[in-house]
Write a structure and sequence with these properties.
heterodimer; A: alpha/beta; TIM Barrel; eight-stranded parallel β-barrel; globular; B: TIM Barrel; six-stranded parallel beta sheet; three-stranded mixed beta sheet
Chain lengths: 333, 388
């Protein structure tokens, strides 16, 4: 194998058991703000230290008190929501026992760059990870507009238009502030249900119009199902992003198109289950992917957000990601 | 309950009072805990002198031994069950339980009572709420009946009829990691693929864990058991598996059985749901997704649209109708509850098949908020009865 290999940790990170407990205790008046702040810092430190020790190449994670779910992150940096998102309906996150608050957006939905949000300050933890390259993960605009409450006054087309405008402004913010080395648009929606080729093309066309406006390093990652058809649509349409990718434990590698020297993000470390994979199994998945798709540069990562496994298991998976990447890089020399 | 039109019911959990949590955890018992016990005793019409003495006794034991001795531990459990039941009855709820005061959480209590699981840690449910998640690491079997002691305790204190909630097989499996059934496949043992592994896991739970539990509750005198399956529709292709697991959990048993599903797309239940057997009630969440404006027509009450399908596919099964949201502290007005009930009656066509309730357990709300929401449920239902 003679390809460039990078490792990526993205998305919403897990909270430790101690942090859940401290947060709950604080809410119920059983502990003070100082204790909660300390537990949060300890949790952060161990997580970032593990990323650093594992030698992960690109890292970024969302876990702040202001980003309790993916949609909350966007809601916290915007105005024009229909009501307080903190009491918005609790809605199931796809097929998981995890839920999010479902915001409703209005005509006035707009980006607020002055918001005090960790989403806008990805370098806040740079002191822990040195010059490690920062990935900012955003829920894809496709998923965001599908997952908000659509029962308000705006039509679906109007919702999509508002969402794309806000996302454009967010990307502009990162382009002008240089606070992110990469943007990862995580899309758990588009592969969840198998769609017609026309529907997939509509999704890709919308993404194309959206990303073309920005001079940023952008990747689009599809999780939560077999993404082979939407990946094919993206490749065949020449989607103008730096790389696409998917969970290759859910997407059969032999169904992926020829990537013809492109960059690809491969979800190979299973973040859905605590069942440990062997390093050999993971490497076998990667070898098979490279052989079948002729990929040029590979970003190996976890299959979905690490918050879906408990904290200690997430740390183990980060260590395995680092270990496997080193082995792959070694084989590459 | 057939003599009451539109009987109101609880769905499951209530928060545990601080005086119980802190004392049983051997933390400091403070003046605030004594005040809370006394104030709620006054509000519920329960003489709290004995509870206060239990708290004092527990406090002395913590100071002297660092632990609470079993008699006081049991007394604290009894008192919190008594308070929780009385809270519901005083709020006007017709069918009650003990607010699951002896359960840490619906999944945790199931795993702790079952062989074949190891804990793996906490994962987020929503906001800063989490649940402990386990992995199945071996064949599953019942360690001991989960809820018979709890039921007997509740029976002692309740003046209203009881409905016992119990976590269902499909949900336990769906919320667990699988380090056993899938691994058997890898090792060539059971030869199961991922789908077969899930099926075997769910049905083993139904046969070896839930059914014996239900039987134990019936033997203890319980007459109405609600199987909680919030995960029932999360994987559409597995809805038939959920239904098979329910059927195997209660087939041939004599009692009243229901299933509670919440925060789900109920459309996914159809048409499979027509194969459910021995099920008397679907307890469903609606208020969470319903607007708060008044009105009894479909435009005003969009969240209740899927009731039409239940009427078509399962006309004999009653509906536990979620009319108050459990995920916020904004108490619904009785008039809003009334309109939700009347709209449901209009769809189903028979008020005898409607049981107004909160959307789900109220464990994430304070007792004050929970009381207000239960009272709104009862008062709004009374307004609906007057209209009918």
């Amino acid at each position: 194998m003679s390809k460039e290999i990078n490792s990526v940790v993205y998305g919403i990170a897990p909270w430790s058991d101690d942090l859940f407990q401290a947060s709950s205790d604080f809410e119920r008046g059983r502990t003070d703000a100082e204790h909660l702040k300390q537990v949060f810092a300890d949790d952060d430190f161990l997580y970032e230290s593990t990323i650093l020790a594992a030698g992960i190449d690109y890292a970024g994670r969302s876990k702040g008190p202001d980003q309790l779910d993916y949609l909350r992150g966007i809601a916290q940096v915007s105005s024009g929501l229909g009501g307080d998102v903190a009491v918005a309906p609790v809605t199931r996150w796809f097929d998981r026992n995890t839920f999010y608050r479902q915001p409703q957006i209005t005509e006035g939905f707009a980006f607020d760059p002055s918001a005090d949000s960790q989403l806008l300050e990805p370098e806040r933890h740079r002191e822990l990870t040195g010059d490690k390259k920062r990935v900012v993960t955003l829920l894809s605009p496709i998923a965001f507009s599908e997952l908000v409450d659509q029962s308000g006054d705006l039509t679906k087309a109007e919702i999509e238009q508002r969402v794309d405008e806000v996302y454009s402004d967010i990307l502009d913010y990162f382009a002008t502030t240089n606070k992110a080395d990469q943007i990862l648009l995580h899309d758990p929606y588009s592969a969840y249900e198998q769609r017609t080729p026309e529907e997939n093309q509509t999704i890709i066309d919308r993404l194309s119009r959206f990303v073309l406006r920005h001079q940023l390093d952008i990747g689009v990652y599809f999780s939560n199902g077999n993404a082979s058809e939407i990946i094919a649509a993206a490749i065949n349409s020449g989607l103008a992003v730096n790389r696409v990718g998917c969970d290759v434990t859910e997407t059969p590698v032999n169904e992926l198109p020829n990537l013809n020297g492109r960059e690809f993000i491969a979800g190979v470390i299973n973040a859905d289950n605590t069942l440990e994979q062997t390093d050999e199994d993971v490497i076998s998945i990667v070898d098979n992917l490279v052989e079948k798709t002729k990929v040029k540069t590979l970003y190996v990562t976890h299959t979905t957000d690490l918050e879906h496994v408990p904290y200690e298991h997430a740390l183990q998976k980060i260590r395995q990601l680092g270990r496997v990447t080193r082995l792959l890089k070694g084989a590459n020399k | 309950m057939s003599e009451i039109l539109l009987p109101t019911q609880e769905v499951g959990s209530l928060a545990k009072p601080d005086w119980r949590v802190q004392t049983i955890n051997q933390n400091l018992v403070t003046d605030a805990h004594f005040e809370q016990a006394e104030q709620w005793g006054d509000r519920l019409g329960i003489k709290s002198d004995e509870l206060v003495e239990v708290l004092h006794s527990a406090e002395r034991q913590i100071n002297k031994f660092g632990v609470i001795l079993p008699p006081n531990r049991e007394a604290l459990k009894q008192w919190s069950a008594r308070y929780a039941i009385r809270l519901q009855e005083q709020a006007g709820i017709d069918i009650v339980y003990d607010g699951e005061q002896d359960r840490p959480e619906m999944y945790q209590v199931a795993v702790e009572g079952t062989r074949g699981f190891d804990w793996r840690g906490r994962v987020r449910a929503f906001d800063n709420r989490s649940y402990k998640k386990a992995a199945v690491v071996g064949g599953v079997a019942l360690k001991h009946p989960w809820h018979t002691d709890e039921y007997e305790r509740a029976f002692k204190f309740a003046e209203h009829p009881l409905k016992v909630p119990i976590t269902g097989a499909y949900t336990i499996a769906d919320w667990s990691f699988d380090e056993y059934y899938q691994k058997q496949q890898e090792r060539g043992g059971l030869g199961l693929d991922r789908i077969q592994a899930k099926e075997q896991f769910v049905l083993d739970l139904a046969d070896n864990v839930i059914r014996p539990n239900v039987q134990s509750l019936l033997d203890a005198g319980a007459t109405w058991i609600q199987i909680d399956e919030p995960a029932a529709t999360t994987k559409p292709e597995e809805v038939p598996l959920f239904i098979e697991s329910f059927n195997r959990s209660v087939a041939g048993l004599v009692g009243k059985f229901g299933v509670h599903i919440c925060f789900s797309d109920y459309n996914l239940l159809f048409p499979h749901i027509e194969k459910i057997e021995n099920c008397d009630q679907f307890s469903l969440e609606f208020a969470n997704r319903d607007p708060r404006g008044l009105g009894v027509d479909s435009a005003a009450r969009p969240a209740y649209e899927t009731l039409e399908k239940f009427k078509i596919w399962t006309p004999e099964v009653a509906i536990g109708l979620g009319v108050t949201s459990v995920h916020d502290s904004l108490t619904e007005t009785p008039q809003l509850v009334r309109d939700r009930v009347l709209h449901a009656v209009d769809i189903i066509g028979d008020p005898a098949k409607i049981y107004p309730s909160p959307d789900c357990g109220l464990r994430t709300r304070s007792w004050g908020d929970a009381y207000d929401k239960l009272a709104a449920t009862a008062e709004g239902t009374q307004l609906a009865r007057q209209v009918l």
